[in-house]
Amino acid sequence: MFPQTYEEVPELFSAETYAATTESAINIAGLPGVVVPAGQYGSGAPFGLIFVGPLWSEPRLLGYAYDHERATRHRIEADLTL
């Protein structure tokens, strides 16, 4: 388990670059992973953690993700009324 990203994602039409993540290496290796909410940056933008495991460990990873979400309650419901 580790942070999905290492810094806040820039605004949609920003000139800033998107920080590198480890998802490419995980995908190339063919490993399963599941991302869970883990809190917010100071700006209010959400960030997450990714659970990665060996091949065929999806049931275990989903269990870890479920337990983590239930224990931390970091999920923030989106306001879709804008």
* Principal-axis shape: flat
What is Rg?
Answer: 14 Å
Going across the major beta sheet, what is the strand order?
1-3-2
Oligomer: single chain
Helix/strand order, N-terminal first: EHEEH
* Nearest-integer average pLDDT: 86
Q: How much beta, percentage-wise?
A: 15-25%
What is the number of helical segments per DSSP (H or I, 4+ residues)? 2
Q: Work out the helicity level.
A: 25-40%
**What is the makeup of the main sheet?**
3 strands, antiparallel
Distance between the termini: 34 Å
Query: Ranges with pLDDT <50 over ≥5 residues?
Result: none
Alpha-beta content class: alpha+beta
Q: Tell me the total number of β-strands.
A: 3
Question: Could you characterize what this model shows?
Answer:
The structure is a single chain. 27% of the residues lie in helices and 21% in strands. It contains two helices and three strands, in the order E-H-E-E-H. The protein has helices at residues 23-29, 58-72; strands at 2-3, 33-40, 46-52. The model has no long low-confidence stretch (mean pLDDT 86). The radius of gyration is 14 Å and the shape is flat. A three-stranded antiparallel beta sheet has the order 1-3-2, covered by helices on one side. By secondary structure, it is of the alpha+beta class.
Brief account:
The protein is 27% helix and 21% strand. With 82 residues, the protein is an alpha+beta fold. The chain starts with a strand and ends in a 10-residue tail after the last helix.
Question: Characteristics of this structure?
Answer:
82 residues, alpha+beta, 2 helices
